[in-house]
């Protein structure tokens, strides 16, 4: 007997037929004698639809009321899955975020889970009931509904797995594992048997949306065993325990897999892209101590995350241009904050551009091998792709390019690092 969390994403939950398939997978897992908790997303497209309603109602919406609206998508699917499981003869009930409760900090629309009260849930599971939990939602200390940020159901699933000390957290989605890059962009992308937590964390944070970044960080911290696999499998498919999804593993486990010849050690694990950032250029900023602090302090105070930063070569007269990126959804706020402080900061113009993309190459092999960045720059220049900014970490190189060149850049780099599957 094992204790398993099964998480199903939006595409897997889109409509009665698909929910029935999910219910069959859940029933099969429970029929093996396992205790099962299921975490579900809203139906595909539903959260976008609800976000749009909020924007139409009030462009400067109150995040607390936004949460009330967008959390409803998961309430619907959790109830529907419980009903479908009951129709198949299983004992099942839904546990909404406020009922468990899943306690979060108050930061509406991007809350973080503080605590999950698990004893009642565990008791129900031990009594043979399947627990169905809506992902993405929680409740703040003052009793209001919160949500965890887009893609947050992955984090709900990992947090539930940690709280109930599950043996595994299976993330069922619309692809059958973590690939060397988004398989929807590169047909020759290769599925990975295993990826380390560190690499997955970096890949997710630079745009590989197959797992939400926070879910990977939490899994790493709480040592939750996470597997990514497809829910689009036939009824006769083997159970998840034997399915070849992608396992997220520790460095030591990866070493063992390599020693056994089950994995090859790779310099580059994957390539990711992100079209959700925007570029801001402030021209003619005074080139003196404190100038950049004056720019970034108000942005930090407003919880606006700045990613890439370049301070251009100084101009004449002790002035310089400063370029940086912020999430597109925060661009208008960032611009307004900076305009308000134009005199204090002392810049001339703000130039913005949302038509940019960030392309990142990730791999732990970079720690010990030189040349990864230069291969990237040469491969892009050979195809005439201009690099507008660069940033690096120990295991990642990112470049900012024109958004229209995203797909081409990802394909070119996938080939340049020898990641293409041999057909
Ligand atoms: P869900 O609704 O199940 O949470 P998501 O759409 O959030 O699913 O994530 C799955 C998608 O992630 C895939 O359809 C795929 O297009 C995308 N993706 C991006 N990078 C990768 C990658 N490296 N490996 C697998 N899928 C990826
Ligand atoms: N439904 C939410 C979203 O679309 C959460 C999730 O699916 O993970 O962002
Ligand atoms: Mg997702």
Structure report:
The chain has 423 residues and is of the alpha/beta class. The chain folds into two domains: 263 residues, Acetylglutamate kinase-like (Carbamate kinase); 158 residues, VC0802-like (2-Layer Sandwich), CATH 3.30.2130. It is 35% helix and 24% strand. The protein has 14 helices and 20 strands. Helix 1 crosses helix 4. It is globular. The two termini are 40 Å apart. The protein binds adenosine-5'-diphosphate (ADP), aspartic acid and magnesium ion (MG). The site of adenosine-5'-diphosphate has 18 residues, from loops.
Provide the descriptors you would attach to this structure in a database record.
2 domains, alpha/beta, Carbamate kinase, 14 helices, binds aspartic acid, binds magnesium ion, binds adenosine-5'-diphosphate, 20 strands, 423 residues, VC0802-like, single chain, four-stranded antiparallel beta sheet
């Amino acid at each position: 007997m094992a204790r398993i969390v099964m998480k199903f994403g939006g595409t897997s939950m889109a409509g009665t037929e698909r929910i029935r398939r999910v219910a069959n997978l859940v029933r099969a897992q429970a029929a093996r004698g396992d205790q099962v908790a299921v975490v579900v997303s809203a139906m595909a497209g539903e959260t976008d639809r609800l976000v749009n309603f909020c924007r139409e109602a009030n462009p400067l919406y109150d995040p607390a009321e936004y949460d009330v609206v967008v959390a409803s998508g998961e309430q619907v699917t959790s109830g529907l899955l419980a009903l479908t499981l009951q129709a198949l003869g299983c004992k099942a009930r839904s546990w909404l975020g406020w009922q468990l409760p899943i306690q979060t900090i108050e930061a509406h629309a991007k809350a973080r889970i503080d605590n999950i009260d698990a004893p009642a849930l565990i008791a129900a599971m031990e009594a043979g009931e399947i627990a169905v939990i809506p992902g993405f939602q929680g409740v703040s200390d003052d009793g209001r509904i919160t949500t965890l940020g887009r893609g947050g159901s992955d984090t709900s699933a990992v947090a539930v797995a940690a709280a109930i000390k599950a043996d595994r957290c299976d993330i069922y989605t619309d692809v059958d594992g973590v690939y060397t890059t988004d398989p929807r962009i590169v047909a020759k992308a290769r599925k990975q048997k295993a990826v380390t937590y560190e690499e997955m964390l970096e890949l997710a944070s630079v745009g590989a949306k197959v797992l939400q970044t926070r879910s990977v960080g939490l899994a790493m911290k709480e040592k939750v065993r996470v597997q990514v696999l497809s829910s689009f499998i036939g009824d006769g498919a083997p159970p998840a325990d034997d399915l070849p999804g992608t396992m997220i593993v520790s460095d030591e486990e990866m070493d063992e897999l390599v020693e056994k010849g089950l994995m090859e050690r790779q310099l580059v694990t994957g390539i990711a892209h992100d079209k959700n950032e925007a570029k801001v250029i402030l021209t003619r900023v005074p080139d003196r101590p404190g100038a950049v602090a004056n720019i970034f302090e108000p942005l930090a105070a407003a919880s606006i995350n700045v990613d890439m930063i370049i301070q251009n070569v100084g101009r004449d007269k002790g002035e310089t241009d400063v370029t940086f990126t912020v999430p597109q959804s925060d661009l208008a706020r960032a611009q307004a904050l900076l305009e308000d402080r134009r005199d204090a900061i002392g810049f001339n113009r703000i130039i913005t551009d949302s038509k940019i993309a960030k392309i990142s190459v990730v791999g732990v092999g970079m720690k010990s091998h030189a040349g990864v960045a230069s291969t990237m720059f040469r491969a892009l220049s050979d195809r005439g792709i201009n690099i507008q900014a660069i940033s690096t970490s120990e295991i990642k190189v990112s470049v900012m390019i024109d958004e229209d060149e995203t797909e081409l850049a990802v394909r070119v780099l996938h080939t340049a690092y020898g990641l293409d599957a041999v057909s």
